[in-house]
Amino acid sequence: VFTAATVAAAPEDPLFGLMKAYREDPSDKKVDLGIGAYRDNNAKPWILPVVKKADDAIHKDPSLNHEYLSIGGLPDFTSAAQKLIVGATSPAIQEKRICSLQTISGTGAVHLGGLFLSKFHPQKPTIYLSNPTWANHNQIFTNVGLSLANYPYFSKETKGLDFNGMLQALRAAPNGSIILLHACAHNPTGVDPSQDQWREIAAVMRERQHFPFFDTAYQGFASGDLVRDSWAIRYFVEQGFELCVAQSFAKNFGLYGERTGAFHFVSAPGADASTANSHIASQLAILQRSEISNPPAYGARIASRVLNDPTLFAEWEDDLRTMSGRIQEMRRGLRKRLEAKGTPGSWDHITSQIGMFSFTGLSEAQVKILRDKWHVYMTKNGRISMAGLNTNNLDYFAEAVDSVVR
Ligand code: PLP
């Protein structure tokens, strides 16, 4: 019989537990390198100037109200989100081979995609996740009833991509497996395949008839260039893959709490592609209806204004360069300091990795000393959020790392 007493306590979410410990630490030296949210040079959340502008315009717009959006969300938002992913002139758009639904940010898009594949894929294949991956992938895909497997991704020796291990695993996976790929700025490692490596990955996936599931949470945030950060997805689409994309606007618009994202299903080219795609859209709408009825309006209105206005769009690109540029500066600054101190080990991975996170290579024991002795908070796998570094704490953090590594 079910009673309240039969439910055991769940373990605390490690990342949110870390944030709590940081908040409760009274030290004025404390450094928060845990959560993946952008911070400015004063360690404060940053409202993108273009978001502020769009927000002000929304408040002055008398035509807006608080009615429900449609099940698929705000059409101006989803169509612009689609163009951002595959490029405005993509044949996939012209041939009506993409259907897009607004979702509860990237998490909701990953979930909707997982649920759809779990219900509609006749073989319900295993989904392969990179080892390591964003921890929530495991929970989300398990919740929708997909079976999970891993492919090697990170090489501890080079602190770069284990490319051979990855390809071998993709070759060994049963034909037609679902492969989850981070489009750019891999979380948690910051390690991305090169364009040549993406081409080889695509070739193996084509050979094995695998289904690509792209997760893109950092477009424009990684390199400062929206096109470059969507290169892998665009390449797979050009190659004629059928695939899906979970897209988040949390990081690149700084709209974390507004839960702004989209799910896209791209059908393969062919005479019946647009009909097949409209069938998929209709099934996705039914799933969405039962899960959230319709998505939240506010963040999508902001993003839509920016994405659909060339002047605001250009300002957004400036803001993206501000964020990615500051992070790249912190990467160079950290590496320079560690090398100047002669900190044992090699530190070039700090600058070759990209995006919000760096996989430092620090051990769990070293991470614990950093937290207990130095008040530096990071996840125990040695991942740091580069956005938590700034010109005020870089020297201190480098000193702390140097001391625990020696
Ligand atoms: N996917 C990856 C790889 C992420 O790193 C994140 C956020 O950290 C997300 C998806 C989803 O984030 P959100 O639901 O806030 O858009």
Automatic annotation (TrEMBL):
<dbReference type="GO" id="GO:0004069">
    <property type="term" value="F:L-aspartate:2-oxoglutarate aminotransferase activity"/>
</dbReference>
<dbReference type="Pfam" id="PF00155">
    <property type="entry name" value="Aminotran_1_2"/>
</dbReference>
<dbReference type="InterPro" id="IPR015424">
    <property type="entry name" value="PyrdxlP-dep_Trfase"/>
</dbReference>
<dbReference type="GO" id="GO:0005829">
    <property type="term" value="C:cytosol"/>
</dbReference>
<feature type="domain" description="Aminotransferase class I/classII large">
    <location>
        <begin position="29"/>
        <end position="401"/>
    </location>
</feature>
<keyword id="KW-0032">Aminotransferase</keyword>
<keyword id="KW-0663">Pyridoxal phosphate</keyword>
<keyword id="KW-0808">Transferase</keyword>
<dbReference type="GO" id="GO:0006532">
    <property type="term" value="P:aspartate biosynthetic process"/>
</dbReference>
<protein>
    <recommendedName>
        <fullName>aspartate transaminase</fullName>
        <ecNumber>2.6.1.1</ecNumber>
    </recommendedName>
</protein>
<dbReference type="GO" id="GO:0030170">
    <property type="term" value="F:pyridoxal phosphate binding"/>
</dbReference>
<dbReference type="InterPro" id="IPR015422">
    <property type="entry name" value="PyrdxlP-dep_Trfase_small"/>
</dbReference>
<comment type="similarity">
    <text>Belongs to the class-I pyridoxal-phosphate-dependent aminotransferase family.</text>
</comment>
<dbReference type="InterPro" id="IPR015421">
    <property type="entry name" value="PyrdxlP-dep_Trfase_major"/>
</dbReference>
<comment type="subunit">
    <text>Homodimer.</text>
</comment>
<dbReference type="InterPro" id="IPR004839">
    <property type="entry name" value="Aminotransferase_I/II_large"/>
</dbReference>
<dbReference type="InterPro" id="IPR000796">
    <property type="entry name" value="Asp_trans"/>
</dbReference>
